[in-house]
Amino acid sequence: MSVSRRTVLQTMGISTALATTGFSLAGCSTSTATSDTGNAGKDLAPWPTYVPHPNAPKPDLAPTDKGVQPGFTSYPKELAKAVAEKPGDGSKVTVWTITWGAPPKPKAKHKLWQAIEAALGVDLDLQVIPALEAPQKYATLVAGGELPDIIAVSANLPDVAEMVAARCQDLTEFLSGDAVKRYPNLAAIPAYAWKASGRIGGRLYRIPVERPRVGHSLYVNKERFERAGIWMPEVGALGADQLTEGLRQIGRTHRNKYPVGAGGAGSFNFNSVVPAFGAANKWRLQDGQFLTNLEDDQMKAGVEYLATWQKSGVHRPDPLSHDAALGSDFMSGITAATGNSNASFSGWATGIKDGFTLETLRPFKPANGAEPGHWLTPGADYQTALKKAPKERIELLLRVLDFLAAPFGTEEYELINYGVEGTHFERGDDGSPVQNELALNGDNKDTLGVGFLACPQQVLFLPASVPGGAETVRRRHAFQSEIVQVGVADPSVGLLSSTWSAKLNELELFVGDSVKAIIMGRKSLSDWEPMVKQWKAKGGDKAAEEYAKEYEAAATAS
Hints:
Elements: H1 5-11, H2 17-20, E1 71-72, E2 92-99, H3 111-120, E3 123-130, H4 134-143, E4 150-153, H5 160-167, H6 172-175, H7 184-187, H8 191-197, E5 207-210, E6 217-221, H9 222-227, H10 240-253, E7 258-261, H11 270-273, E8 283-286, E9 289-292, H12 297-311, H13 326-331, E10 335-340, H14 345-352, E11 358-360, E12 374-375, E13 380-386, H15 391-404, H16 411-418, E14 425-427, E15 433-435, H17 437-440, H18 445-448, E16 460-461, H19 469-483, E17 487-488, H20 498-519, H21 528-557
Parallel strand pairs: 1-16, 2-3, 2-4, 7-10, 12-17
Antiparallel strand pairs: 4-13, 5-13, 6-10, 6-11, 8-9, 14-15
Helix pairs in contact: 20-21
């Protein structure tokens, strides 16, 4: 089975504040906002028109424009066609992409690579880079001269917006407004994902890789929380002190089992807990100005609360040494709760099987009296850019990406995500694909990195092989429907700041180290204000100024 990005980071012991504060390695806008790439003073191209795919099956549980995912309680009995004709012309298409798992076997030995290539009608030449090596390999790629046709770009790539503006295709005429309707699968990507990709110089250059808006949450063992009297299925129904005491009770009554898995890469479930104290999502927008959430009393209160958890034994002992085991510890019942992203839902629901009921803790009522919130994600972690080329060539490449973005319940989606029936999977009793050892051991889309080039809106679905799968999907959909009502967006999403691009890793690591030091008791809350002052001087204030300028330009255009 493929390895997730978080698992890789945790296994390597990378304690990053990118995870701590909710800035993923790829979820933020990072481009250098120079006069060429910034949007201030430019005519801004309209976003692509959103059009649900006419052939996609209707979900059992409807999505919303606020970010609730479509839910399917069973696999579609008949698969639709998402693409009318084979997109390619037999020519070679070169691709630079990433994987958070192992790179693929050579094409001659990779059956899914061969099958996707045949379905696309192109000679698909993939260069798949391990994600942690991407910044260094990207610098070599850009310096080497000729770019590949399709490039997966992300936030931690240096000066990416400048490169895209100078050497990649302006896609405005192909995708802006109703023009996107020529590519029905791309048109079915939700509007929030396009906005998260942002404009460069007022124009559209990048195609988003959609991710759900629901962010980090505290996944819980429902039965264990019920026995401790702390399972509350409503936002704000559970008090902060009540939660802490219930977690301590779990620790007292279960030998060799612990209330909460913490982990250094997630900095003690920072993203899952601190939003309940009413803290802004990275930035607070006030009268057109960007103010860092580090100056919020709510942020400080959340950190103090997590320090209380550590001191009172809520976290498992030696929390910083268990990054790699957070998921397995939770699924096996060693811990009763662990914070993680929405991406963990299906894997954990499948992994625990019928061991306990997987649920998600609603934001609790904080002692500071604030309204509890939930930090939303940008809605697109990665984007794709195309090398400059004649119009006919760009149209071919867009048809290739349109194929890769085929929605759930279509033949194309099944091929990309599950493989070929009889080769990569057999059908379960409910008709859903059950992948075999070939697929689970590397002959899959994750090793190919095609999911970082284009993808449809992700859905909630669990096969019948997961006990109670349909009901678990319903519960998750209900949680999302509740949580988006208190969702807090990051106002910088889709905007450009040259300072943030240059200082992202440094600033976030600085905050993350400070957070962990306070929670572990190596520093006190009295050290918080000096840390914030340093953060602002290191580039935080300058980034805030640049975001404010970009925000004004976007607001004027809309």
